[in-house]
Amino acid sequence: MELLYSITVGTLTACSVFLILRGRSFPIVIGITMLSYAVNLFLFSTGRLVINELPLIGQSQTPTDPLPQALVLTAIVIGFAMTAYSIILAVRVRGEIGSDEVNDPNYSASEGQRS
């Protein structure tokens, strides 16, 4: 169970890093979202992975910690807000510049216009 879980977290992290390093804004937003999912899964795993047990300290043979579950719930809400803000920023940049390339060679930031 732990091996499958760690492979899933590692695959999500690797895919998200690949997408973040792309040159367009939409894959970057998707990559940041995938990275937040990987971090959420990692945080959730810190509370111990047990099946059919109560998530309370001291109530079972292998007690689990409820704090990572609360952190993941908070991270989901923050991640949703961050994703919405990133998409709004990407759409605005696309509208003003006319391209969603991160390193657009035809745009000079110092001049504020396309060449």
UniProtKB/TrEMBL annotation:
Keywords assigned: Cell membrane, Membrane, Transmembrane, Transmembrane helix
Gene3D superfamilies per record: 1.10.287.3510
Keyword Methyltransferase annotated: no
Family: Belongs to the CPA3 antiporters (TC 2.A.63) subunit C family.
Domain of life: Bacteria
NCBIfam families associated with the record: PRK09094.1
Transmembrane segments: 6-21, 28-51, 71-91
Topological category with respect to the lipid bilayer: Multi-pass membrane protein
Recorded GO CC terms: plasma membrane
Subcellular location: Cell membrane
Name of the molecule in the record: Na+/H+ antiporter subunit C
Chief place of localization: membrane
